[in-house]
Amino acid sequence: MLPCPKSACYSVGVKHFAENKPTFQILPEQELLRPALPKVLGCVDYLHLERELKRMDQIILTSGIESLFVALSKERYEAQARENGTKPSAKALHRHQLSSRQALRCTILKQLLDHPFRELSVHLAESALMQWFCRIENFGEVRVPSKSTLQVYGQWLEDEQMKMILAQLKEAASGTALDGSSVIGLANALELDVVWVDSTALPAHIHMPVDWVLLRDGARTLVKAIVLIRKHGLKHRMPEPLEFLSLMNQLCIAMSATRRRTDCKKQRKAVLRQMKRLIKVITEHAERYHRVLDENWAQTDWSRPQAEQVLRRIAGVLEQMPAAVKQAHERIIGERKVSSKEKILSLYEPDIHVIVRGKAGAEVEFGNSLFVAEQSDGYILDHDLRQDVAPGDAKWLEERLSKIAEDGDPTNLSGLFADRGFASKRNEEILAEHGIFNGLCPRNPKKLEERLGEEEFGAGQKRRAQIEPRIAILKNVYLSEGCPRAKGFVNRQLAVDWAVLTHNLRLLARLPLAEPVAAEIAESAAA
């Protein structure tokens, strides 16, 4: 394994953090012993994975992102302790520091392999290679994180802190040591002066937002919560709760069957009126059970935080149900349109929007808009997942230009390429003002044909085709087709951060190595 010299790589590794948090320090600790990996023959895929993980381990160490991750984790841990009026002991800080290292590596491994939490926990228990990468001790007794712990690891830091980790990795990948060599052992440091940008829709894990289906979703959540409360000892006078679900399912079947009838509009209105009456009864029972649980939770075997979780589940649906009923009434009975700003797309994901894509097979998508910028090697320099409605590609590029550029200075860019959605007179003026080559596709077809005759513009647009599969890989591989396990915008934002970090680490691990580093790795492998 490559050494981690304190002179060059360590100074670069903590530069970004030191500029922001100069007084924060990491507790000194002895490096964990890492047993030698068994020599495996006959499986090429395993050897590729082993080589990749070893190289990623070197990059994590030499880039300084592990030191920064541990430092930011310690800061957050101490801040939480201060809010609770306590001060963690040195032993607790040391234990948290070890957990932070494991959180970084386990989450990267999860994103890399795209395993569910339960499956990853099992693989960690049986794989010496994964234990080695995640720094899990294997000396007679192996203690691996459970599926719940692995889920917590994915939320170890906040989005702002993850952005600092990504900035540190970019700085190390594009920087050089004192002797002129790459900090992380690349044959050539990353070039950040030419950028390709694009935007996409990150779909939310929801069903098609049909108005009457929202009523079914709300009824199902409320009835299941009532059943759960009754199961734990609190009962209030009402019929069998599951009968309401049966009635709602029957109405949903009837609603689906109306489209095959000649008087479908009349029948749809009649069925919706029955749904509205049923929802009114269910919400009244849910309100009473919410009140009963809030006042008598001590009579159950739940703690107050556990009871609060059920209370929030009921309250979240009850708050939205009047608006969902009104929306269904307006669209089905009133036959009036509801604006996208006022439309409820999901009772459980409030921060998603209607995104008009205009593409074959995806005319409209439901989720959040994602902005991505990459350099010539495919390294993702910048990304932005919008919680609110995206401002449009042209305006979005204007907002993110300083984030894309090295050190936040647009004059460090020499060229920028994008599709015609990013083209605008204002963006052309900004690029000309900073001396950046304008690689934006003109909206005018004749002007586009003229510009394609330019050698530099034509080559840049040809290279632009690579950003489409890059986005597809990010979404479908590292984000599991839209991060279905991430609930809520904050968790989806963190999932995107981790996906970008893992993608960039893997890309760096596959780039050509400097000759001394390659020779050292070959010598280590031969030994």
Topology:
Layout: H1 9-13, H2 15-20, H3 44-63, H4 65-83, H5 90-113, H6 117-126, H7 128-133, H8 147-153, H9 159-174, E1 194-203, H10 211-231, H11 241-257, H12 264-296, H13 304-333, E2 353-359, E3 362-374, E4 380-385, H14 393-404, E5 415-418, H15 425-433, E6 437-440, H16 445-451, H17 455-464, H18 467-478, H19 489-510, H20 515-526
Parallel strand pairs: 1-5, 5-6
Antiparallel strand pairs: 1-3, 2-3, 3-4
Helix pairs in contact: 3-19, 4-5, 4-9, 5-19, 6-8, 9-19, 10-11, 10-12, 10-13, 11-12, 12-13
Q: Oligomerization state of this entry?
A: single chain
The residue ranges in which pLDDT falls below 50 over 5 or more consecutive positions are 1-24
How big is the Rg?
Answer: 27 Å
Q: Give helix and strand order, one letter per element, not per position.
A: HHHHHHHHHEHHHHEEEHEHEHHHHH
Largest beta-sheet characterization: 6 strands, mixed
Helix content: 55-70%
- Provide the structure class: alpha/beta
Strand content: 5-15%
The count of β-strands is: 6
The general outline is: globular
Return the average pLDDT rounded to an integer.
86
Summed up, the helix count is 20
**Domain count:** 3
Distance, first to last CA: 11 Å
